[in-house]
Design goal:
The complex is a heterotrimer of chains A (about 260), B (about 325) and C (about 290). With about 260 residues, chain A is of the alpha/beta class. Chain A has ten helices and ten strands. Chain A has helices at about 45-50, 75-80, 95-100, 110-115, 120-140, 155-165, 185-200, 215-220, 235-240, 245-250, and strands at about 5-15, 15-30, 30-35, 60-65, 65, 80-85, 175, 205-210, 220-225, 230-235. A six-stranded mixed β-sheet of chain A has the order 6-7-8-3-9-10, sandwiched between helices. Chain A has a four-stranded antiparallel β-sheet with strand order 2-1-4-5, with helices on one face. Chain C is globular and about 60 Å long. Classes of the chains: A alpha/beta (about 260), B mainly alpha (about 325), C mainly alpha (about 290).
Chain lengths: ~260, ~325, ~290
């Protein structure tokens, strides 16, 4: 199995606070791994480090054998890492269709002058992009809502749209930051199906931060547990569940 | 596409009627000048709308680029023959290019700043440019420094303003409804999320800023050849605010709104001059801000509130 | 060297007047995130209230300062209630445009003949100028008064914000309006008080400015207002000591550029420094680094 993502000794200090400390993790092609841990354990910081939104203090991140530390977020996305955000960040005043079409713009760009003059090659490209975007929206069940503004979508659909947007560039790795947050049990069930479905359909490797154990235990093949910025356990869900170090992280010392 | 052709035809008929009225003298030279001035204001404001309304980059220094264009064009046409069809367009092209290049050089460092801080930095740039205009005579005597630059050819006529304005609208419309436009708007909506879906925000912010400033530069060139006299006071901080007012009153991210507000603004200010009896002329500038305040309280989102007339939109955006 | 010190003191005089204006900008920005462009015009009204206090009503100096402060405080609160409060939940730019409208209105309305009139007026000094020689550096009683009044007011403000309940409420509201409201703080009143205090300080600044540079007119507030605002940003907007520091730097830089480089380039240098500082420290000298939460 080849590694899609290999994080080695990643460290991030905010002033005196070690948000991530000597963190290493390896994802192989097709993995669906859960990243869990108490609030403030540094999970989202790991995502931000991978996607280039903040620079690491030390360590390296290899994506398909290439060190991606120092790349800008848009370059990381173009290389093939898509992500969603904990607190949904859609382009609220743009239509559902445009939210997806934005992400297309780098590939096969026809250029400023074609756009300004609305040339045939520009219009061909627009049509192509629109078709592809619609295809993706259909897959995620949002096709009928394409003209609505993103801010007017119900919560569950907003999460779906964010995932759709992350999938445009045909990423190999998808980072999902608490996709089930704020969902009711029925919605969580549908979300789990969706994650499994896109994992299969787009041949994705997925790293997922989640607090709902139902989701993590239900779909993840492997779980990594963080506490105070460090990796404290890693393994199959049932192994990790009974790991005393993990129980301590969640419930505190002396419970076991 | 049919809609677009129809719209252009209507615009053309409107132009022919107005031009006929001007040529027959039914529109007097004063109104003609106001009409041209309104067009100049609209072109400049379209540029700021691209920068602020669509890309979300707060600029309080738009008048500086307007001024750069005005002085550049005036200096260029001075070197050319006193008459001829090509004199003005050459001046305008150079004005646009110079404004764009300066926008690129200044935009690259300062567009890293966000929101109000960017506004203040652009305000500072505007102030610096104003001081430079005031001292320009020390380097180029014909620019006149604080006394102003005189003897600029009156080349700007209604057809120039009209067709450049129309071109400005068409270009902006095509731009904002393209992939480039989507990238710009996504930056306004959420810069970090835009980066996370592959938008090179530095590149697009700079691009939007440069194009917007080219609009200001061309508008400035037209302005210089409309009144034949330039003073640094025409390009100070308050003039930047005027353009901002128009863009906000029209509605951020709305081309129709900017056009309506720009025309309305120019005619309101000039109209008040005509309507008010001479005894209360000094009330003109008292009434104007009151209208402005009341308008903002009643319609804080501007006239169009970010919406667009249907005929300006591609099919998939139109209301059915 | 004595020449330099002399200019430094002249610069400090200007800087302290800027500081009184900058404080209002920074407090208002800190609490409602509004660049209150009308603030410079409130300063102008303060100068006129000082003018009438001396010229028409023959009031003694402390009373004139008080009249200007109280008058401006009422004006500030009135503006806030009428023009800004209705827009508190609208986009921030709407309030900014309204602030521009209020600014224009104050300038042109006061220019009307039956208000202040469109002319320059000589500001009457309530006492004759006296100068003292300190090892070659001249300092005037005017400068001592400007320094004294400004310092007293700044200490007063700092104590007010740090020690009183209302000051605590102001800090709470500027930190988080909703939470402050949940804690039982009357957010509307707190915001009005902030506008009032800011305007009062600008009013005092207006009188001091009139005494120091004795010529006033209805548009006099624009440039000092802009510069004070820039000073507030330079020091770190929303931070009270930042406004004082930024204002003093602005005043000194302006004076030194004027005498050592060129008086026409004075404003350009001040604004160039602003841009450079912002590029190095985007939130100002004392500003805290803002990092976006992802």
């Amino acid at each position: 199995m080849s590694a899609v993502l290999e994080i080695k000794n990643l460290t991030k200090a905010f002033g005196g606070l070690m948000a991530v400390k000597d963190f290493s993790l390896r994802l192989n092609t097709g993995d669906l791994v859960g990243l869990i841990g108490p609030n403030g354990a540094g999970k989202t910081t790991v995502f931000n480090l991978i996607t280039g939104m903040i620079p690491p203090t030390a360590g390296s991140i290899y994506f398909e054998k290439k060190n991606i530390v120092g790349l800008k977020p848009f370059q990381v996305y173009q290389l093939g890492i898509g992500r969603t955000f904990q607190n949904i960040r859609l382009f609220k005043e743009m239509s559902v269709l445009d939210n997806v079409r934005v992400a297309f713009h780098q590939r096969g760009e026809v250029g400023l002058f074609h756009s300004i003059l609305s040339t045939p090659s520009f219009r061909r490209r627009e049509k192509e992009v629109t078709e592809k975007a619609r295809e993706l929206l259909s897959v995620l069940g949002l096709r009928l809502r394409e003209r609505e503004l993103a801010k007017n979508l119900p919560y569950g659909d907003q999460r779906r749209l964010e995932i759709a947007r992350a999938l445009v560039a045909g990423p190999k790795l998808l980072l999902l930051d608490e996709p089930a947050a704020g969902m009711n049990p029925a919605e969580v069930g549908r979300l789990m199906d969706l994650i499994l479905f896109i994992h299969e359909r787009f041949k994705l490797t997925i790293l997922l931060i989640e607090h709902q154990m139902k989701v993590v235990m239900g779909i993840c093949q492997r779980v990594a547990v963080m506490d105070f910025g460090e990796l404290v356990a890693e393994g199959a869900p049932e192994e990790v569940q009974n790991n005393p170090r993990v129980i301590e992280a969640y419930l505190g010392k002396g419970v076991v | 596409m049919k809609g677009a052709k129809f719209t252009l035809a209507v615009a053309l008929i409107g132009f022919i009627i107005l031009e006929a009225l001007i040529l027959t003298g039914l529109i007097n030279p004063y109104i003609h000048t106001v009409l041209c001035y309104a067009g100049v204001v609209v072109i400049s404001a379209l540029g700021l709308n691209l920068i602020y309304g669509y890309t979300g980059q707060f600029s309080l220094g738009h008048a500086a680029f307007f001024g750069i264009g005005a002085y550049t064009a005036a200096l260029i046409t001075r070197l050319l023959p006193k008459s001829g069809f090509w004199v003005l367009p050459i001046g305008l092209v150079v004005a646009g290019v110079v404004a764009g290049v300066i926008a690129f050089l200044i935009g690259l460092p300062i567009l890293r700043l966000k929101s109000d801080y960017l506004g203040i930095a652009t305000l500072g740039f505007g102030m610096i440019m104003n001081v430079l205009f005031k001292n320009s005579d020390k380097v180029i005597p014909v620019m006149g420094g604080a006394c102003g630059m005189r003897g600029i050819g009156k080349f700007t006529t209604f057809p120039w303003v009209f067709f450049l304005g129309l071109a400005g609208i068409v270009v902006l419309r095509n731009l904002v409804f393209s992939s480039v436009g989507r990238a710009l708007i996504s930056i306004r909506e959420d810069e970090l999320a835009a980066e996370a879906v592959g938008v090179n925000s530095t590149k697009y912010k700079t691009l939007g800023f440069v194009i917007g400033c080219v609009y200001a530069g061309v508008a400035g060139g037209l302005y210089a050849h409309l009144y034949s006299y330039l003073s640094p006071d025409n390009f100070d901080f308050l003039k930047s605010i005027d353009v901002l007012l128009i863009v906000v009153i029209g509605g951020l991210g709305s081309i129709s709104g900017t056009v309506i507000a720009g025309m309305g603004w120019a005619f309101l200010l000039e109209g008040l001059r005509v309507v008010l009896p001479s005894a209360v002329q000094e009330w003109r500038m008292v009434v104007y801000p009151l209208i402005l305040i009341i308008f903002m309280l009643v319609r804080p989102g501007g006239a169009m509130g970010g919406r667009e007339f249907n005929f300006l939109k591609p099919a998939e955006y139109q209301r059915r | 060297m004595t020449y330099f010190l002399q200019q430094l003191i002249n610069g400090l005089q200007l800087g302290f007047v800027y500081a009184l204006i900058a404080l209002g900008y920074t407090m208002v920005y800190g609490i409602v995130r509004l660049i209150n462009f009308a603030h410079g015009d409130v300063f102008m009204v303060g100068a006129y209230l000082g003018f009438f206090s001396f010229a028409s009503w023959r009031l003694p100096f402390p009373l004139a300062i008080l009249v200007a402060m109280v008058g401006c405080a009422f004006l500030g609160v009135f503006i806030e209630r009428m023009a800004y409060k209705p827009l508190r939940n609208a986009a921030r730019i709407s309030a900014l445009i309204t602030a521009m409208g209020v600014s224009l209105f104050l300038e042109y309305f006061t220019s009307l003949k039956f208000v202040f009139g469109p002319y320059f007026r000589a500001f009457p000094r309530p006492f004759s100028v006296r100068t003292y020689d300190l090892a070659g550096v001249t300092i005037s009683n005017i400068q001592i008064i400007v320094f004294g009044v400004a310092i007293i007011l700044m200490i007063g403000l700092t104590l007010f914000v740090q020690k009183t309940k209302t000051g605590l409420a102001m800090r709470a509201v500027s930190f988080d309006k909703d939470t402050a409201a949940l804690m039982g703080i009357n957010v509307d009143n707190t915001i009005s008080i902030t506008f009032g205090i800011g305007a009062a300080l600008a009013g005092a600044g207006g009188v001091l400015y009139g005494i120091a540079y004795p010529q006033i007119h209805p548009f006099m507030g624009i440039m000092p207002g802009l510069k004070a605002f820039v000073a507030a940003v330079l020091g770190g907007i929303g931070i009270i000591p930042g406004a004082m520091l930024g204002a003093v730097i602005m005043g000194v830089v302006e004076k030194l550029t004027e005498v050592y480089i060129s008086s026409t380039l004075r404003d350009a240098v001040a604004f160039a420094i602003l841009i450079i500082v912002l590029l190095i420290r985007p939130t100002g000298i004392l500003g805290k680094k803002e990092s976006e939460k992802v």
